[in-house]
Task: structure prediction
Amino acid sequence: MKLCMVGCGEHAFSSHGPAQARYAAAHHGLEPVGCCDVDRARAERYRERFGFARSYTDAFDMLDAERPDAVALVVPVSLTCQLGSRILERGFPLLLEKPPGETVAEVDRLAAAARAGGRDGRDVPHQVAFNRRYIPLVAALRRRLDALEPDSPIQHIRYEMVRVNRRDPDFSTTAVHAIDAVRFIAVADFAEIRFRYQDLPAFGSGVANIFMDAVMSSGATAHLSFCPVAGVVVERAELHARDHTFFLDIPMWSAFDAPGRLLHIERARVVEDLRGPTSGDGAAMFEQCGFYGEYEAFFDAIAEGRQPEPGLSATRQSVEVAEAMRARRSEF
Result:
């Protein structure tokens, strides 16, 4: 399987490149044949660091020359739809960074490109890189929730996303991670949401703490809070079902509580206290944070002729909710 990489910036270098190199080392059938960036020096550094055969400055020159079996797209969100659509229309299986576009219209354009480039009535294989879905501790939580008794559905989810000195006027492109994680954990879409915004003008135009109170299609309720200029980098989830409560500390880059923790309490008794994999276990941060897992799932699905997950249709509502947040809507 030949792999091409489009976009060799900081995020690609810290997260995607190490995951690609680890997979190539463990699966000798993967050939990293080409990497591309508009900055020639960045592309060449990526090639040298992660074992790609050639570097390019034009993505479509690279695709024409290499004819890869899989492509990874890690570019600013403002370019994702434009480049991703052209790649999908040419029929190349694609892993694209989150969010898959800034708007639902862009997600739909990408989905149309996947249909147009497909064969035999099937979309071009594609996967949206919502890495929380592949964090080992999040996957462990999902398995434990699946194993609960049928009369113990999730009643309530609380999810916190806290950052330090993030003065983005639009925090929605980061908040979409939490929005998607709640949908994944709950196995349900949002049915209704009320938004509240606590503006923090001292930190810059548009900076705000944001709160979501929601009802899921399953009937569960959810509260999401986003505090971008606080004192710590953490993501936390708390879930309640009949007789069961789960506390999840999700590992983040440079977070003081990495590699995370999953605590399961049943009827006031701790039944499991699971710590995330550490570097001592051979798990680097790109694995703890789910980047390796998403590549493993992507490559395995392509090799087996399956559609990777999550695809554009599965992540569409996550973008739709983030778009409502960006527009400062009060309800969804």
In short: Residues 129 and 204 are 30 Å apart (CA to CA).
